[in-house]
Design goal:
Radius of gyration: 24 Å
Strand order of the largest sheet: 6-7-1-10
Shape: globular
Structural class: alpha+beta
Largest sheet: 4 strands, antiparallel
Length: about 300
């Protein structure tokens, strides 16, 4: 048997775009398969990856090492802004995140970046406003799948507790929807392989476990390619609940990687880790036996 590791591409950003009905971002991430951070970088800074290199014979080549470094630094900055907006970080915290030894970002500049972000992606601002208003009235936030989370801290006399409830409330619909996507994807894959006796025999593959937004399965060596295709197909199917500004049910693109051991270890490395673990356990048992005899 071999393992197949599969997860969803840019899941949190796709869900945010759909939930907020931020149509332009939804189209960029799902229809054009653009990178979330590069999209925001181009939208707000006016620069794209094409400004730092070009495609040659099907491969991207940087204009220079300096151009590659400049692109990576710029993308990293806007990636930090994405994180800050998602988790409702204040301008002071964003300034600290962006500051380096060679460049100091002050709070005013960070505040301006956040303001520009919401000006360009206005639907994200208003969905958070609606979530917080509803949370203040009901103490709950809902996901697109109808499930909810209670956050009574919104009614706390402490402004700090209220702010934390607001942050969790804005993030909860994305996180809860992510769980539903993962759970449904796992069930779809498992049902595909279960078969329907006596007409369709079970397939030589099975889902082993899930972690975060990743599904890990195993398949017989001669069934790996078909199992990989099954996972990509089943996990990327649309969800009736995920209808954004484009007005159509959306699925989230997925990836599936075949490997010999979870987390990308080779079979030899995995065996080495297992041997080291067994040796450590044996040494521990010997120490415990020695302690018992001494006692």
């Amino acid at each position: 048997h071999r393992l197949i590791e599969s997860d969803w591409v840019q899941q949190e950003y796709v869900l945010a775009a759909i939930i907020a009905h931020q149509t332009d971002w939804e189209e960029a991430l799902l229809d054009r398969r653009e990178d979330a951070h590069e999209y925001v970088m181009q939208l707000l800074s006016g620069k794209s990856k094409a400004d730092f290199g070009q495609g040659v014979d099907g491969k991207f080549q940087w204009h220079s090492l300096e151009a590659e470094a400049a692109y990576k630094n710029l993308r990293s900055d806007w990636k930090q802004v994405n994180f800050a907006v998602f988790f409702r970080a204040q301008a002071a915290h964003l300034a600290q995140m962006l500051s380096t030894r060679g460049r100091k970002v002050d709070e005013t500049e960070a505040e301006q970046m956040i303001a520009e972000y919401y000006d360009k992606l206005d639907a994200l601002r208003w969905v958070k406003y609606r979530i917080i208003k509803s949370l203040q009235q009901t103490g709950m936030v809902y996901s697109p799948f109808g499930t909810y989370r209670k956050l009574p801290g919104i009614w706390s006399p402490s402004r700090r507790d209220q702010a934390e409830a607001e942050r969790m409330g804005c993030n909860a619909p994305i996180q809860i929807a992510g769980y539903h996507v993962m759970a449904r994807g796992m069930l779809r894959v498992a049902r595909k392989w279960r078969g329907h006796l006596p007409l369709v025999a079970p397939r030589p593959a099975e889902v082993m476990f899930t972690i975060h937004d990743e599904i890990v399965a195993q398949a017989r060596h001669d069934f790996v390619e078909e199992a990989q295709h099954d996972m990509l197909t089943e996990m990327s199917k649309p969800h009736p609940e995920l209808v954004g500004g484009c007005g159509i049910p959306r699925g989230i693109p997925s990836t599936a990687k075949v490997t010999d051991a979870w987390s990308g270890l080779s079979a030899e490395d995995a065996e080495g880790v297992a041997r080291e673990r067994e040796e450590a356990l044996e040494n521990e048992r010997q120490r415990e036996d020695g302690s018992s005899r001494a006692y």
